C-alpha cells in the first residue's frame, strides 16, 4: 500500500502562527465539508501534530495515518519543536489532532491555558509516568540520593527540550523538593542530545542522571534504571490522551469515534515504538506500521466499536 506522507517541519512558534487557513483541513474549507464524509469526491484532510523526538506521538501518528488513509482521508503530519506551539496549534485550529497528549499532569499548564479550545477524545494508554534514570552500574537508587553527590554527576542533570512538561516538573518540583537547585544544573537541550550524552556516558562507564519518561523505547534500549521518587515530586502515573481542536468531533464524527475506541497496552505500545523508531527508522514509518498491523490483525476492527 502506498503512503502519502506529507510532513511539514515548522519548528518555531512563529512559523506555526503563519500558517494560512488553506494550509490545513481545519480552516473554513474543512468546516464547510463537516459531516459529509463519503458524500463528496473531494478528499478530506486531517492534520496530526507531533514533536518528532517524543516517540509516543510519533509512533501513534503514523499508525493513525495508515488507518485513516485506508478510510479515504488524506493525512498530514506536522512536526513542531515543543509542546507550547503544538497546544497553540490545537487551540487555534492549525492542527486537527495531537495523538499523544499528557494533559493529566505533565502538560496540565497547557491545558489550563488552551483547554477551552481543545477536545479530549479519550485516554488510549493509562500507565505513563515521568522518571529520572541512571546507568545500571551507578550506585544510587533514589532521587533523594542525588543530594550531596553532585560531584559524582559533575553537577549536571541532563534534560530535554526547554518547553517540555518534564523540564518544567524537574525545575519547579523535583529540584526544590530534593534540594538540588544549588548543587545541580538542569541541562536543557533536546531529547536527541540527551540520548547522545547518555550513550556516551554508558560507553565510557561514567555516571550520568537524565530525565526520562514511560512509555519510551530508550528504557529498554539502554542499560538504565529508574530512580525511586519517595516524595512523588515527578508526579503521578497518568494517561496519554488523544486531543483534538474544538469542533473536530462534529466535523469528523466517525474518526472521533475511532479515536475514542483507541487503546494500547504495554506490549502493543512497546512493539509499535520499537518497530517505528528502531527496526525501521526514519523514512520507513509506513512499513513499520504495516508490519505492526499484520502482527495485530484485529486492532483496526476494534476501533469500529
Describe the structure.
The protein is 38% helix and 21% strand. It has 305 residues and is α/β, with parallel strands linked by helices. It folds into two domains: 6-127 and 238-303, Periplasmic binding protein-like II (D-Maltodextrin-Binding Protein, domain 2); 130-226, Glycine betaine-binding periplasmic protein, domain 2 (D-Maltodextrin-Binding Protein, domain 2, 3-Layer(aba) Sandwich), CATH 3.40.190. Helix 11 runs antiparallel to helix 12. The longest helix has 16 residues, at 55-70. The radius of gyration is 20 Å and the shape is globular.
Defining traits:
305 residues, 2 domains, carnitine transmembrane transporter activity, three-stranded parallel sheet, alpha/beta, disordered N terminus, D-Maltodextrin-Binding Protein, domain 2, five-stranded antiparallel sheet, membrane
Short account of what is shown:
By secondary structure, the protein is an alpha/beta fold. Helices cover 38% and strands 21% of the residues.
How many whole angstroms does the radius of gyration measure?
A: 20 Å
Structural class: alpha/beta
Unreliably modeled segments: 1-41
How many helices in DSSP terms?
13
> Which range does the strand content fall in?
15-25%
Mean pLDDT reading:
88
Look at the structure and give the CATH class of the largest domain: Alpha Beta
Q: CATH superfamily of the largest domain, called what?
A: Periplasmic binding protein-like II
CATH architecture of the largest domain: 3-Layer(aba) Sandwich
Question: How is the main sheet built?
Answer: 5 strands, antiparallel
How far is it from the N-terminal to the C-terminal residue, by CA?
25 Å
Portion of residues within helices: 25-40%
Secondary structure tally: strands? 10
CATH topology heading of the largest domain: D-Maltodextrin-Binding Protein, domain 2
Instruction: Give helix and strand order, one letter per element, not per position.
Output: EHHEHEHEHEEHEHEHEEHHHHH
Q: What is the 3D shape?
A: globular
Structural domains: how many: 2
Amino acid at each position: 500500500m502506498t503512503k502519502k506522507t506529507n510532513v511539514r517541519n515548522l519548528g518555531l512558534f512563529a512559523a506555526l502562527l503563519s500558517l494560512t487557513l488553506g494550509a490545513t483541513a481545519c480552516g473554513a474549507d474543512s468546516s464547510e465539508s463537516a459531516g459529509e464524509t463519503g458524500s463528496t469526491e473531494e478528499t478530506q484532510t486531517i492534520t496530526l501534530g507531533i514533536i518528532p523526538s517524543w516517540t509516543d506521538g510519533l509512533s501513534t501518528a503514523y499508525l493513525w495515518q495508515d488507518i485513516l488513509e485506508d478510510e479515504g482521508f488524506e493525512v498530514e503530519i506536522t512536526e513542531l519543536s515543543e509542546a507550547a506551539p503544538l497546544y497553540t496549534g490545537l487551540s487555534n485550529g492549525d492542527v486537527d489532532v495531537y495523538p499523544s497528549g499528557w494533559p493529566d499532569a505533565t502538560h496540565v499548564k497547557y491545558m489550563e491555558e488552551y483547554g477551552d479550545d481543545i477536545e479530549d477524545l479519550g485516554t488510549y494508554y493509562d500507565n505513563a509516568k515521568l522518571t529520572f534514570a541512571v546507568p545500571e552500574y551507578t550506585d544510587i537508587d533514589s532521587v533523594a540520593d542525588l543530594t550531596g553527590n553532585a560531584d559524582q554527576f559533575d553537577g549536571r542533570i541532563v534534560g530535554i527540550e526547554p518547553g517540555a512538561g518534564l523540564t518544567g516538573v524537574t525545575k519547579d518540583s523535583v529540584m526544590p523538593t530534593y534540594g538540588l537547585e544549588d548543587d545541580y544544573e538542569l541541562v536543557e537541550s533536546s531529547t536527541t542530545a540527551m540520548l547522545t550524552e547518555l550513550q556516551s556516558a554508558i560507553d565510557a562507564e561514567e555516571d550520568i542522571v537524565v530525565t526520562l519518561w514511560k512509555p519510551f523505547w530508550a528504557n529498554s534500549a539502554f542499560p538504565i534504571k529508574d530512580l525511586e521518587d519517595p516524595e512523588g515530586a515527578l508526579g503521578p502515573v497518568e494517561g496519554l490522551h488523544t486531543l483534538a481542536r474544538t469542533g473536530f468531533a462534529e466535523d469528523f464524527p466517525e474518526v472521533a469515534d475511532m479515536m475514542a475506541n483507541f487503546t494500547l497496552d504495554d506490549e502493543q505500545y512497546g512493539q509499535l515504538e520499537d518497530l517505528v523508531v528502531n527496526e525501521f527508522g526514519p523514512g520507513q514509518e509506513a512499513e513499520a506500521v504495516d508490519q505492526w498491523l499484520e502482527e495485530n490483525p484485529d486492532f483496526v476492527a476494534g476501533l469500529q466499536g
